[in-house]
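Project outcomes to date are best conveyed with an example. Our students and postdoctoral researchers have been running inverse folding experiments weekly, and each run begins with a structure described purely in tokens. The record below, which covers 384 residues, was selected by the lab manager from last quarter's runs and is presented without edits.
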């Protein structure tokens, strides 16, 4: 009888593991699966076990391809299964092509006279996943805010960062979820960053991979009215709840889809962008909407110089600017009082109220649209 041995954390059993076990079993007659107990998994690999050891052994042992389950108990990051192999005496040790400890396993197999077989991982179209990505998705929030940016846009792109400069933004509700996304697509309000956070992906890495900056996932995850240090990664300078902005913000739907990645390479006056951000930063710090509005309007003037279309004056607004750098999407409008905002909302069918969103004590409650604005969104064609 030819015995085959495999080892791993198998923290969340998924299709990739099932395929691996089946491929390994096909190499012989008897498959032995080994995994480190919960305390050793934590000690060696800094990972928390999802199931207790007995439950994990029962689940793995119930598979038709598996004949025996044994614990890997050696205090060795590379070869925690050494004693298990010596006890079960397999003929083959099967691993996958992405095994991090392949060299150590090759040496071990040579020492013990065991055949090492490296199996190809199944193609992505098979729908396989990793335990880590599955856990990230499970931990992801159900609802997240989007964001408006006040000043400092593009200074979160690593190649355009300026030491001592800032990015100023605010998370806003109504919130979105994977099931309900009640904003026009191509909004310029950090939608791709929000989508990454909801899916449990690496949101900052996802955004940087698009050739844009990290500010969207950073403020969506942090929430509140935030000031960030310009640089290669998110570093929070300070934040507050943004409560001083309640009743004073609105977004205008330009009905033009924006395209930030497509315009990332344009020449821009980054020092002037940084100057506007320093003013907006003071507005957030002092919780003074009039000062914040100056920074916002300075940013808007730079957007006009870049070639973005002029925005309409809607009511008695203090300032306005596009929410993104993609020459379209939504624009943020600031009003001195809730009454001034309400009058503007009544005068323009493409203007919608948003409020500062700051998560407290880990809550992730959904914030819905008011019915009249939800109906307005539908009539505009922004949502179906």
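After processing, the design step wrote out the following sequence:
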């Amino acid at each position: 009888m030819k015995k085959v041995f495999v080892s791993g954390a198998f923290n969340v059993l998924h299709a990739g593991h099932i395929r691996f076990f089946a491929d390994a079993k096909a190499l012989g007659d008897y498959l032995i699966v080994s995994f480190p107990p919960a305390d050793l998994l934590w000690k060696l690999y800094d990972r928390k076990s999802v199931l207790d050891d007995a439950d994990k052994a029962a689940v793995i042992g119930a598979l038709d391809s598996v004949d025996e389950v044994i614990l890997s108990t050696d205090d060795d990051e590379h070869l925690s299964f050494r004693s298990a192999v010596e006890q079960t005496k397999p003929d083959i040790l099967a691993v996958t092509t992405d095994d991090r400890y392949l060299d150590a396993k090759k040496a071990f197999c040579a020492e013990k006279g065991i055949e090492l077989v490296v199996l190809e991982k199944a193609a992505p179209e098979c729908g396989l996943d990793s335990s880590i990505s599955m856990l990230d998705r499970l931990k992801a929030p159900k609802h997240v805010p989007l964001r408006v940016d006040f000043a400092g846009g593009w200074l979160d792109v690593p190649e355009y960062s300026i030491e001592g400069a800032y990015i100023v933004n605010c998370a806003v509700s109504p919130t979105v979820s994977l099931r309900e996304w009640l904003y026009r697509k191509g909004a310029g309000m950090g939608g791709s960053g929000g989508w990454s956070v909801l899916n449990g992906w690496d949101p900052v890495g996802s955004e940087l991979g698009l050739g844009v900056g990290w500010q969207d996932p950073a403020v969506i995850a942090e929430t509140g009215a935030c000031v960030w240090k310009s640089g290669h990664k998110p570093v929070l300078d300070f934040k507050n709840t943004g409560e001083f902005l309640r009743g004073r913000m609105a977004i205008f739907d330009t009905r033009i889809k924006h395209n930030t990645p497509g315009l990332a390479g344009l020449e821009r006056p980054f020092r002037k962008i940084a100057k506007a951000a320093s003013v907006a930063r003071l507005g957030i710090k002092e919780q003074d909407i009039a000062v914040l509005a100056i920074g916002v309007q300075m940013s808007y003037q730079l957007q006009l110089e870049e070639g973005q279309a002029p925005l309409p004056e809607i009511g008695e607004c203090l300032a306005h600017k596009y929410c993104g750098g993609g020459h379209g999407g939504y624009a943020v409008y600031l009003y001195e009082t809730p009454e001034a905002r309400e009058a503007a909302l009544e005068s323009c069918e493409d203007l919608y109220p948003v409020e500062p969103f700051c998560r407290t004590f880990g809550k992730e409650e959904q914030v819905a649209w008011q019915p009249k604005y939800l109906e307005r969104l539908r009539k505009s064609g922004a949502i179906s």
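The first strand starts at residue 3 and ends at 7. Residues 123-128 have pLDDT under 50 and may be disordered. The training component of this project remains on track.
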